Amino acid sequence: MGQIMTTVSAATSREILDGEELLARCMGNWDFALRVLGKFRARLEADVADLDQALGVQDWDLLARLAHRIKGASASVSALQLRQRAAELEHAARARRVAELSTCVERLRHESNRLVQELSVLELDACEAR
Amino acid sequence: MNPASKLMRVLVVDDDEVTAAVLEHSLIEFGYDVTVAHNGREAFQLIRSGEIRMVVSDWCMPEMSGLELCRRIRERSGGAYVYIIMLTSNSRTQDVVEGLNAGADDYITKPFQPEELQVRLRVGERVLSLESRDLTIFALAKLAESRDPDTGAHLERIREYCRIMAQELVRTGETGEDLDGDFVHMMYLTSPLHDIGKVGIPDQILLKPGALTDDETEIMRRHTVIGGETLDALVAAHPEARFLLLARDIAWTHHERYDGSGYPRGLAGRAIPLCGRIAALADVYDALTSKRVYKDAMSHEAAREVICEGRGSHFDPRVVDAFLRRDQDFHRLQRALADPPTPVAALS
After folding, report:
1. CATH number at residue A124
2. Strands B106-109 and B9-13, sheet pairing
3. Lowest mean pLDDT among A85-89, B82-86, B124-128, B332-336
4. pLDDT digit string, tens, across residues B102-161
């Protein structure tokens, strides 16, 4: 399993996912870290879909709440860029800077896709290592 | 960690299941017993059980925010101190100030670093251990009791009886008062102080083996006033220590009777604080079922009869009903905590 850790460090930009920091937060338990990432990914995909809906019905409070939740969860798994994008969206939604919101959501989605792609590779590696 | 020692229970409150899972995992690794709640309302209900001493809470949550949770915890009357760490991504100075003002003890910004979280939890444990109230109270009560060696494990039994009746009254809610697990805990904690005023009674009366004269009875009865006034002075000096209110009321009123014929003030009905009405029954039951140098122990069944006869006159009917519903627990405890037979040598 430690091999996967090396893979994450080498192939994944730390800005997308800081594997070392995540592993430290998971007390060195990589199996647990993978389980958390799986949970995170499922939640993220659902939340990103809900962002579109909130944007569509112009519910800025909901948009801010979802962005806040993505920000907290991505901080917990050390997905630094996504955390940054979520913070920008939350800030814009709370400040009612409506003109910026579509762009913010788009940037967050882009980052989310990059991360999900990395997570897929990681899951594949983990399966092979087993 | 001593394997025999009880793990400290920490409540994690976060609506984000990912953060909650990572936190829970870390805390278990640190050696804590962890419970997870997903919003402030759920967390507050768990805290009312009286079993949670430390909380790590998120700020922004649905239903009840972490900030509101802090306020609600601090607004409670009585109860053990709960140490609260806010864990949030709100990192501006004004957020920190607002969190601490609401009653949080510490503040950590997300994402947490395990080493930092661990040392901050240790700080919390140290703060809680400073509140060595429980031990101090019992030590004080034992000190008062040491002047009267005839009473054996009286204090241990009294607090158990009080806990059982308080639990029952909280469960049924029939007193119409807003009671929760904290009340049960406080009754358990403070009921051993009921006779603390006996420190002010002269030995020749307190330890007199025969019947007391009228004058001596009058002096003996003063233990309620001495205890009440002593604890009242402490309440005045430390109004923040709300458990002292309960201790004072128990000391002052545990010999009052529901019909107003008790002492020292002849209070009746609900004018007697509930804690005093509960302690009164516990004290009488224990006196009846314990052996003294001047009398034998009564059986549980006979004591039960006496209590029933006092329903509505000596005792609050609701408290008697609570006793009757749990009387088998009384019987079990009475046997488990019974004083050992007096050695023959001690009688000679």
Report:
1. 1.20.120.160
2. unpaired
3. B124-128
4. 889 999 888 889 999 999 999 998 888 766 566 667 767 777 777 766 566 888 899 999
φ, ψ of residue B235 to 5 degrees: the values are: -60, -45
Residue B250 has pLDDT above 70, yes or no: yes
For each of the domains in chain B, give its residue range(s) and CATH number, in order of start.
Answer: 9-130 (3.40.50.2300), 133-347 (1.10.3210.10)
**By CA distance, what is A79's nearest residue in B?**
B111
Task: Look at B22 and A76 and tell me if their CB atoms are within 8 Å.
Answer: yes
Q: Residues B30-41: what's their mean pLDDT? A: 93
Q: Which residues of B touch A (CB under 8 A)?
A: 14-19, 21-22, 25-26, 29, 58, 60, 62, 89, 110-114
Q: Identify whether the C-beta of residue A77 lies closer than 8 Å to the C-beta of residue A40.
A: yes
CB contacts of B16 in chain A (<8 Å) are 43, 69, 72-73, 76
CA distances from A100 to A7, A55, A95, B133, B209 (A): 36, 11, 10, 56, 89
Cβ–Cβ gap B21/A36 under 8 Å? yes
Minimal C-alpha gap between B33 and chain A (Å): 17
Give the residue on B whose Cα is nearest the Cα of A38.
Answer: B18
pLDDT on residue B134: 67
Query: What is the rounded CA–CA span in Å between residue B269 and residue B259?
Result: 6
Q: Provide CB contacts within 8 A for B264, sequence distance 6+.
A: B221, B222, B224, B225, B228, B252, B255
Query: Per residue in A86-122, pLDDT tens?
Result: 999 999 999 999 999 999 999 999 999 999 998 888 7
Q: Where in the sequence is the domain holding A74, given as residue range(s)?
A: 2-129
ipTM of model: 0.86
- Tell me what pLDDT residue B5 has: 43
Which stretches within B290-347 are classed as H helix?
300-309, 317-325, 327-336, 344-347
Determine the distance in angstroms separating the CA of A95 from the nearest CA of chain B, rounded to an integer. Answer: 15
